[in-house]
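ok so I'm stuck.
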Amino acid sequence: MPTVSVRLFAGLRQLVGERELRMTLPDGATVGALRERLAEDYPAVRAFLPTLVCAVGEEYVPPAHPLRDGDVVAVIPPVSGGADGAPAASVAPDDRLFAVTEAPLDPGPLVEAVRRDEAGAVALFYGVVRNENRGRRVLYLEYDAYPEMALKKLREVADEVRARFGVTAVGALHRTGRLEIGETSLLVAVSAPHRAEAFAACHAAVDRIKQVVPVWKKEVFEGGEAWVEGHVPEVRSEK
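replied:
not stuck anymore, here's the structure
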């Protein structure tokens, strides 16, 4: 019988009250069976099952994916990405292109990291914490992440964007932890031979980050707090 580690994030972690669980499942158990077991053990989770996806080995997998002893399964709510201190352990200190970190974000090194002599344009996107949302005053934001997988997905997004738009370089940095009003939560930089490609690729990279990178945002506002749900990551069927 496989014993797996189950990692929980954002509102799901808050609902269960644990960051990580260990579960022993019957032989032949799948991700779908694990989801059902989680709902049985924690009934409050059941209402959220339709929006939860799972990742094994830092890759999104379908419910039919079989589990093996020792697997680490991340149960992932809809990601909020960059939408409306010291670096994390997953960040290599010499990697200026990609980071998931609690440290404040500095655009200067990122711009220099993507700049190339053959690139006539560099587009830079800032995601900034604003003080109002849906008519209520925002006090601050808290970002949670699956940092190892988030870093991997940032690199994959960059590969997709380079292939699609033919740009010269792409980099992305994402904050975690508590962010005050006016602080930068996300930086995306793209260099390209011409400005049209740089703008289009930067826009596409930001949108894709929101869709697939496991980062979650909690909004703390006057009178309450709420996790801001966004995209449910697409999971491809396994053949």
